[in-house]
Amino acid sequence: MKRLSTLCNLLAGALATTLLAPTPVRAQLYSDNFDVNSSAAYTVNADLDTTVAFAYDYSVDGIPSAPGSPGGSTLGVKFTANNGDVTATAAAINISPTGQSFTGDYVLRFHSWLNSNGPFPDGGTGSTEFFTAGVGTEGDDVQKSSGSASGAWFAGDSEGGSGIDFRAYRNAALEGPTSTVYTATDSGVAPDPVINRRSANNPYYHTTFPGGQTPPASQQNANPAVQTGALKAGTLGFAWREVEIANIGGNVTWTIDDLLIATFTAPVLTGTNVFVGHWDVFSSIAGNPEFSFGIVDNLVVERPAAPAANADFDGDGDVDGADFLTWQKNLGLDPADQPDGNANSPTDTIVDGLDLAIWRNQFGPAAVPAAGVVPEPATWALAAMAGL
């Protein structure tokens, strides 16, 4: 009798309330919008002939506010590499939040803007430079393909002038041209030209990065002979890109604007920090260095969102009376997984009224069985109560 009373109370509450689908919540572990000079909070690891400027107003370069910046702010971190002297050599610079340690599942997200000197689409002398970012770093390394680079990290260039425009590294080791770490596959079949999976020319990248970006108007006006033309498909430059590096379940993924670029399966990570930075992999100095730089804004490290609630307990593609009966059968079960009737697993471990409310909100069969009409949620509830 007590179970019947409990069930009736739960049914009444669920039937009287229409719930919105739960919104996944990400818990922030660290964030910086760079609207103030936060340089004291970072360790800068850098080669010679590199610079970093915190709280830099990138609107002076004609760059619009990064998406989601509070109040339309145009302050971020500006990086340059191999621009300031006559010694032509590759150079890298990167920053890590001092004293931070991120363990378990977490996601590094930020906005990246890559600026280059033209003319385009090919770019001018020394125009090809990369943003860099990674997880599992020790926080005290210059991240480049030599020396003591650490972690799982990635690099993407501005105008597709490298031939290896999307790069994935474990420590200082670059994943090669046949690596299955990259999501893209080679395009074309010999004897026709084969386009490597790491090249901006690969069609895999062209839907998300269709090309056509041009330098900001103020840059074109400042030097119309240089900052002219448009970038080709597959390129990242002259646009804000949302970069996400996720360390979840021991695997590390790299996405840009929601396009999966690469996945490391169970990499060995020697550190627990993160970094963002800039890298000129070539020795050539940019012909017009005032146009050659990278901007990072809105850096966040966060826990991944909890899995969405799911009341399809039998996994048949719809939420219907059969799922209600699963919930009813296991009401009060603890511990319980999602197939047991626990719609908000693993957020909690018990089959209870919250799971019933989720079932009611999601009730809606994808198809009606031929044998008859599937009842509305209230009908199922009343039928269940009559059978008790």
Per-chain topology:
Elements: H1 2-16, E1 28-32, E2 42-46, E3 50-57, E4 75-81, E5 91-97, E6 106-115, E7 130-137, E8 152-157, E9 166-170, E10 173-174, H2 217-222, E11 241-248, E12 251-256, E13 259-264, E14 273-280, E15 293-302, H3 321-330, H4 353-362, H5 377-386
Antiparallel strand pairs: 1-15, 2-5, 3-4, 4-15, 5-14, 6-11, 6-15, 7-8, 7-14, 8-9, 9-10, 11-12, 12-13
What does this protein structure show overall?
The protein is of the alpha+beta class. The protein is 13% helix and 26% strand. It contains 5 helices and 15 strands. Strands 1, 3, 4, 6, 11, 12, 13 and 15 form an 8-stranded antiparallel β-sheet that branches. The chain has a 7-stranded antiparallel β-sheet with strand order 2-5-14-7-8-9-10, with no helix packed on it. Helix 1 packs across helix 4 and helix 3 crosses helix 5. The C terminus is likely disordered.
Offer a quick outline of the entry.
The protein is α+β, with helices and mostly antiparallel strands and 388 residues long. It contains 5 helices and 15 strands.
List keywords for this structure.
alpha+beta; disordered C terminus
What's the end-to-end separation, in Å? 9 Å
Profile the largest sheet.
8 strands, antiparallel
Order of helices and strands: HEEEEEEEEEEHEEEEEHHH
Low-confidence stretches: 12-23, 366-375, 382-388
**DSSP helical segment count:** 5
Shape: elongated
